[in-house]
Amino acid sequence: MTTPTNHELQDLLDNNKRWAADTETREPGFFSRLLKQQTPQYLWIGCADSRVPANELVDLLPGELFVHRNVANVVVHSDLNALSVMQFAVDHLKVKHIIVVGHSNCGGVKAALYDLRVGLVENWIRHVQDVRHMHSEWLYTVPEPQRVDALCELNVLEQARNACHTTVVQDAWGRGQEVVVHGWVYGLHNGLLEDLALTAGKAEDVDPAYRRALANVKRRYAPQD
């Protein structure tokens, strides 16, 4: 891999100028309005993979989608970064939807599945290895070429369920605030998002939604006769 030169970085700045000019031409006053308010309805919790640009995938402009990303779209109760983003989104921005989004052929999930040595991030993806261990009996019945994507989807379900169990979401539901948690997966091979049908808008929805979504994943990856 070559190191970016000053010329290549200037290309990025030039691209930004063209983007800003094009945006202002299409929507005069866009940046002035954006400066005054931020009213997204959605919080996207996704993978840091550069091939999964949140706003572009759902065709939303800046200001319309609040985004948090990390390796393998993990939501854990010890991650104050993710929890702070969630609390700001729910308590202050009043987002109505939290969408946990994984993607096919995820490098972090692949490393967790195969115990690959990838440095410091190994400590982070141990959360994904926990998902692997939890579902190992079923996971290793999945044909090997499909196993990474199967674990990607299992990981979405577990992280979405974790999001439901955070104090941020539980407190919002407790005070009657409208917040719905979703689990989606993005296909790198076709550019399409798929709803994994883990959708919960109140505490009593979580376990039934999780069980239905898990059953759907298992049916989809069942070995074909």
Give an overview in words:
The chain has helices at 6-26, 30-36, 54-57, 80-92, 107-114, 121-124, 126-134, 136-139, 144-165, 167-174, 206-220; strands at residues 42-47, 66-70, 97-103, 180-186, 193-200. A 5-stranded mixed beta sheet has the order 2-1-3-4-5. The model has no long low-confidence stretch (mean pLDDT 94). β4 and β5 (193-200) form a beta hairpin. The longest helix is centred in the last third of the chain and has 22 residues, at 144-165. The protein is α/β, with parallel strands linked by helices and 225 residues long. The chain has 2 domains: 1-37; 38-220, Carbonic anhydrase (Beta-carbonic Anhydrase, Chain A, 3-Layer(aba) Sandwich). α5 (107-114) crosses α7 and α9 runs antiparallel to α11. The chain contains 11 helices and 5 strands; from the N terminus they run ααβαβαβααααααββα.
Question: Topology, pairings included?
Answer:
Elements (H helix, E strand, L loop, with lengths): L5 H21 L3 H7 L5 E6 L6 H4 L8 E5 L9 H13 L4 E7 L3 H8 L6 H4 L1 H9 L1 H4 L4 H22 L1 H8 L5 E7 L6 E8 L5 H15 L5
Parallel strand pairs: 1-2, 1-3, 3-4
Antiparallel strand pairs: 4-5
Helix pairs in contact: 5-7, 9-11
Q: Order of helices and strands, N to C? A: HHEHEHEHHHHHHEEH
Helical coverage, percent range: 40-55%
Mean pLDDT: 94
Give the oligomeric state of the chains in this entry, treating copies of one chain as homo and distinct chains as hetero.
single chain
**Major beta-sheet overview:** 5 strands, mixed
Cα-to-Cα separation, first versus last residue = 44 Å
Q: How does the helix and strand content classify structurally?
A: alpha/beta
User: What CATH architecture label of the largest domain applies?
Assistant: 3-Layer(aba) Sandwich
Which term fits the overall shape?
globular
What is the fourth-level CATH superfamily of the largest domain? Carbonic anhydrase
- State the CATH topology of the largest domain: Beta-carbonic Anhydrase, Chain A
Strand element count: 5
**Count of alpha/pi helices:** 11
Q: How many structural units, i.e. domains? A: 2
Low-confidence stretches: none
Roughly how many Å is the radius of gyration? Answer: 19 Å
State the name of the first-level CATH class of the largest domain.
Answer: Alpha Beta
